[in-house]
Amino acid sequence: MKKALAVLTLVMVVMLLCPIATLADDGEDGGESDNASATVDLTVTVVVPTPPSSGEGGGEPTYTITTNLLGSEQIKNISYTGEVLQTIEATSPDGSFSITLPKGSTALGPDGKRLQTLNVNIYEDPPDSPEGVNIIGLPYDFQPNGATFQDPPMVLTWHYDPDTLGDTPEESLVLAYYDDDAKVWVELECEVDTENNTITAKVTHFIIFAILGKLPPPPPTPAEFVVSDLAISPVEVYTGELVSIRVMVANTGGQSGSCNVTLKINGAVEDVKEVTISAGLSKEVAFSVSKTEADTYGIDVNGLTGSFTVKEKPMPPEPANLIVSSLAITPSEVYVGEPVYVWLLVSNTGEESGSCEVSFKINGAVEEIKELTLSPGSSEKVGITITRDVPGTYVVDVNGLTGSFTVKEKQEVVPPGFNWPLTFGIITAIIIIGLLIYFLVKRRRKHSASSGNTGVEK
């Protein structure tokens, strides 16, 4: 079976500092130690077999890594996905620094693919260490930055010379990496073997690593206390109500200690509290007081001053009292289907807001319920419209106020016909009256004429 081979070359250049030296001057001989460096070339050749063609047997491709470390040749296996199939170990020429990549670890580059190149160099211009911390020796810069080693991680082991530590105690030594984004050194979980003078840590990524040593702290200063932030709440209360008085006490010294916090009211000691506070920490101290006499009271807490006022407690307000009145039913008599409006007045005679339900009942059955809320001293008119299709008298009850209305059957009104007898009688009467008037007038004229003739003859 023919296979195509792809060869990738991975070159690891490890620049290791032989004697580890502190950045600080020794202070005794005033000279500087000479730092030597060694270059370790680790050439890894990865042979990529061509997967078997369709129809042939075979399993997952395997990759062989050939390493040459200071003339010591090693052949290790790794999978295509970056899984280390055999433990890889590398040590500096003087044995002061070593790395171990255990079998089963997954080595990936920043792009998430199998690592292609790996370089370890001395970082000769390291970032500043935190205050009170020394960098022991020089850091190592592992490239490419962002390469990862997982499950299990890579093991780093440093050997240090205790004679180069100066005032730095061995127990304070740690391995740390520099977080370039946050611009801080981050301590790793590590194990310090003071008997064999080694520090061991497990790492999961490539970045700048170094040994850090914490300098012994200076002798602590005595406890010193500062009282601040006086707070009085509330500043105005009624007799018998509590007033909260709080201050913040800070220990600005270098040792834990205790102090008394004294509360004075109108110059007289009201309360004393003893507090114990660790160095550099603060604690809130609170007092609660109440007074039965109306007055303004002066406060003094370790020199901080303030005041609060006590007033006579007012009479409690009258609770809400909602009453109903002025029931009105209009109209009181309707025909079937015509509306009747029922309403009344609800008033709150109390000194607090209150709510009530207004229940409209017709013949004992609830017709409708309305809920309303009234502020003190206010009134509101509440009503409903009712229609009934059955004639009768209906009794209305609204929260105990009663009344009634009557519903009548509608009667059809037939327009009257023409009354001929009446009309004939009226016409006849008019004619008779006219005739009577005519004859009376005629008779009077005749009588007048006869009287005139008689006078002439005489």
Give an overview of the whole structure.
A hairpin with a 2-residue loop joins strand 28 and strand 29. A 9-stranded mixed sheet has the order 4-3-2-1-8-9-16-12-13, with no helix packed on it. A 5-stranded antiparallel sheet has the order 5-6-11-15-14, with no helix packed on it. It has 458 residues and is mainly beta. Residues 1-57 and 67-72 have low confidence and may be disordered. It is built from 1 helix and 32 strands.
What's this entry about, in short?
By secondary structure, this protein is mainly beta. The protein has one helix at 420-457; strands spanning 6-17, 37-48, 63-69, 72-78, 88-91, 97-101, 106-108, 118-122, 133-143, 148-150, 154-159, 173-179, 184-187, 190-193, 198-203, 208-214, 225-233, 236-238, 242-251, 257-265, 268-277, 282-290, 295-301, 304-311, 322-330, 333-335, 339-348, 354-362, 365-374, 379-387, 392-398, 401-408.
Protein traits:
disordered N terminus; 5-stranded antiparallel β-sheet; mainly beta; 1 helix
Q: How is this fold's topology laid out?
A:
Blueprint: E1 6-17, E2 37-48, E3 63-69, E4 72-78, E5 88-91, E6 97-101, E7 106-108, E8 118-122, E9 133-143, E10 148-150, E11 154-159, E12 173-179, E13 184-187, E14 190-193, E15 198-203, E16 208-214, E17 225-233, E18 236-238, E19 242-251, E20 257-265, E21 268-277, E22 282-290, E23 295-301, E24 304-311, E25 322-330, E26 333-335, E27 339-348, E28 354-362, E29 365-374, E30 379-387, E31 392-398, E32 401-408, H1 420-457
Parallel strand pairs: 1-8, 18-24, 26-32
Antiparallel strand pairs: 1-2, 2-3, 3-4, 5-6, 6-11, 7-10, 8-9, 9-16, 11-15, 12-13, 12-16, 14-15, 17-19, 19-22, 20-21, 20-23, 23-24, 25-27, 27-30, 28-29, 28-31, 31-32
